[in-house]
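Input chain follows. Return structure tokens only.
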Amino acid sequence: MKPLTYSDYINDRSIVEALRIPQPPPAAADGRPEADWPLWHDPAQAGPGVAWSPGDPWPRGGPWSHDEVLFIRVHQGFEVWFAQFLHELDSVLTESDEGFHAAHGDLPRVELAERRGDARPHRAELFPKLHEAISHHADGGVADAIRFMPAPGHYAINAPAPTSWLNAESLERWTFRLRRAAAAMQVTLPFFDVLATLTPAQFLEFRGRLVPASGFGSVQFREMELSLGMREAVNEKMATAAEQRAQAGAGGAGDAIRPSVHDQLTDWGRSRIQQRLKRPTLRDLVYALLNGIAIELWPDEAERNGVFDRFARRNVDAAVGDWHKALQQRAPTHSDHFLLQEQIRELGVLMSHRETIVAALLEMHTPGEPVLKQVKLFIDACLGLDDMLLRWRHRHLPFVEAMIGVRPGTGGGGLKYLRSTVAERRDHLAYGLPCLWQARSLVQNPRSMEGERRT
């Protein structure tokens, strides 16, 4: 029997041979002459009478660019670590889905786009503390902003309580794996420093023939977005240009045609995306956990409304108090009043999501039950994972600007599109777990919440 070798185990030959120029499409298909592409099977282009094969030293001369090796290898490195990210996150999603399904059926799918714009104002008899704030804060139009606030916790999914199917050991394992996934993503951030040693002029030596290929079509990056929960964002990106124009003509989202992932992917890639769209996501899991905690701690709806009512009133009082302190004893202007009204309205939007309120309460208080303690650590790891994807995007942005400025990307995107991915007004498109980020706006000093049942 052949002894095991390092090369067999690591598969280093495949990694080395992966560095190659693919065969170019026919000139008639892309409108560019074949001479723009180095043909690795052509002895004339690989040196005197020697054909180049994958894994050989990079050829010199002709259309070959020495600096293209760096560009390819860095992106291959990204894909290696994206795969590790997905390996860790997939294991958590698979195990949690199996556990939830065995106890309660399918994990509920969270569709945040359906939650926008239809929440009715709260009812005074259900949320008396919040309603009292209308007379207490009658100046500057704040009363109207409070009057039309949606009911705190209006949006929710009715998921079962977490302790009915979870245990601390599983949560601890999942927390560890999510932290490892975040560390894998962290590894790739310095890759941009290496890639930045490529000058814009060096990049232009080979950039022109990459059109319309683009990193926008990285299947694994899209899978990471989907796994975190951004189904709606990826669905938008998957729409073809014709579909986007039809949506825009019918009053759909967007003021410009976005680059299409659909056009960037192979059949293999599109198949992976379609399979991923059917699977549960981290957003589904986290939102189910937070709703489950609310149902477990406050099973009676009236009691739950009471907790949310006092919490909402405290946030309104804190916002108005902070506003007065910021005036520094000067008379408020019309602009000051407008900003306060907008802040109160935004608080109402945030507190209309049950998950956001529960995440804030969980952040403020230390749970007593072992499983809930581990849920809190798991939630922290989820936020850290979402943060790492955002950090990657933010690191990508200045690199692109330094390399190509405001010119369009090879896939039609460019700087304007990339900025929209980190500053999207519809938070559910830019964040995997918006409730965890929004909860930070609602966290209050725990001592000011005495009398609340602690999570």
